[in-house]
Amino acid sequence: VTRRRLLGAAGAAGLLVGGGSGAAVAAAARTEPTALSSVGAGRIPFEGARQAGIVEPAQARAHLVAFDLAPAADRRAAAGLLRRWSDAAREMTGQGPGGQGRPTTPAAYDDQVADDAGPSSLTVTFGFGRSFFGRTGLTGRLPQALAPLPDFPADALDARRSDGDLWVQIGADDALVAFHALRVLQKAAQGTASVRWQMNGFNRTPGATERPMTVRNLMGQIDGTNNPKPTDADFDRKVFVPAGGGDSSPAWMADGSYAVVRRIRMLLDSWDHLSVARQEQVIGRRKSDGAPLSGGGATTPVNLAAITGDRSFAIAGDAHIRVAAAASNGGAAMLRRGFSYHDGIGTDGAPDAGLLFVAWQADPLRGFVPVQRKLDGSDGLSRFLRHEASGLFAVPGGAGPGEYVGQRLLE
Ligand code: HEM
Question: Which intervals hold domain Dyp-type peroxidase C-terminal (predicted)?
Answer without folding.
Answer: 215-398
